[in-house]
Amino acid sequence: MSQILIFPLGVGGYRALPATSIGIRRSPADPTSMEPISYFQAIVLGLLQGFAEPFPISSLGHAVIAPQLFGWDIHQNDEFFLTFLVGAHCATAIVLFVLFRKDWMRIFRGMGRSLRDRRIGEGDSDAKLGWLLVIGTVPAGLIGLLLEHPLRSLFASASAAAAFLIVNGFLLLAFESLRKRPPRRGDYLGDAEPRMAKLSWKQAIAVGTAQAAALIPGISRSGVTMGGGLVVGLSNEDAARYSFLLATPIIAAAGFLKLPELLGSAGDGVRGQAFVGALAAALTTVIAVKFLLKFFETNRLTPFGIYCIVAGTICSLIFAF
After folding, report:
1. I need a labelling partner for 314 at 20 to 30 A (CA). Which of 67, 129, 199, 221 fits?
2. Is 29 part of a structural domain of the chain?
3. Distance between CA atoms of 11 and 269, rounded to whole angstroms?
4. Angle at the Cα of 79 (from 51 to 244), degrees rounded to 5?
5. 162-176 burial string, b = 16+ CB within 10 Å, else e?
6. Number of domains in the chain
7. In this structure, how many other beta carbons lie within 10 angstroms of the beta carbon of residue 185?
8. What is the pTM of this model?
9. 229 is in which domain, residue-wise?
10. Residue 238 or residue 166, greater confidence
11. Secondary structure of the chain: what % helix, strand, coil (to 5)?
């Protein structure tokens, strides 16, 4: 006998649907259990998360749009989906930290010196960069705590994500038009920390706070921070590196602060899928970061802006008709 689930429909009405008709699957090992997300879906979404997080194309926007395009019964506000994303975020944060571990070790040592001496020594670019990242992370974190749920509820639809993906594309094109310096061969050579540490405190706050725009599905965290870096005078590769460093604490916080939910009762039925999705996300994060650092040695944000506009427009038309 198939199980019937009752769902609210509008105001004061309810609709009964068979469980299988909304994409919920029974586990072969236990005919009474339900799988809210399949392992195949977990792999696809994990690969997409790891790829789209470093790229300036909005990982959250793609995570909201993809299930709708594929006809999966997965919604941004589903508790199991939010719990599943914890694993992908943790994997992305770990990979970013490992890839830039030498930078982080220098930054930690520099911050330690500044705390010991109670000042940032003249020419200590590692210490200054560390505190630039701190003041860039705190505002975005506070805004995220205050506005994450309201924004997620307000823009919790694939149609909204597609529309903001178009906005993201135009933002990337605008950043390119406002950048202070064109791509130059050899910009990426040498030690990047002193160049990134030339940012002013106000610039760091502005670029860091812009991360909060990524709470809206379709707006890219890496896109706005890379673009902000270009506008304040960083080279392509330095803007990308600064964006990855700045994103690591936020992504880590988003994942690890909610890790107890994955390990608790909220993770029942999705822990295995979250682990598989995390492995997939780790793989594509490595590939994406290595590609982007090479790509941005001489190239611009323009191709990603065009992609966002085209993809967002096509998805908007599909969802409308």
Report:
1. 221
2. no
3. 30
4. 30
5. bbbbbbbbebbbebb
6. 1
7. 8
8. 0.82
9. 39-320
10. 166
11. 70, 5, 25
Find tokens 């506005």 and name the residue. 147
DSSP for residue 266: G
Residue type, 55: F
On average, the pLDDT of the chain sits at 83
262: nearest Cα among 23, 50, 71, 37: 37
The distance in angstroms from the start CA to the end CA of the chain is: 36
Q: Rounded distance, CA 88 to CA 82, Å?
A: 10
Largest CA distance in the chain: 75
Q: What are the C-alpha distances in Å from 96 to residues 99, 222, 265, 277, 287? A: 5, 13, 29, 17, 11
List Cα–Cα distances, 139 to 93, 150, 307, in angstroms. 19, 17, 30
Give the residue-averaged pLDDT of 98-118. Answer: 94
Joined tokens for residue 5: 């689930």
DSSP label at residue 211: G
The torsion of the CA quartet 146, 148, 149, 150, rounded to 10 degrees, works out to 80
d(CA 318, CA 224): 27
Rg (CA), the chain: 21
The answer to whether residue 138 is domain-embedded is yes
What are the tens digits of pLDDT across the range 301-321? 999 999 999 999 999 999 998
The torsion angles phi and psi of 273, rounded to 5 degrees, stand at -65, -40
Token pair listed for 300: 């611009």
- Residue 26, domain member (yes or no): no
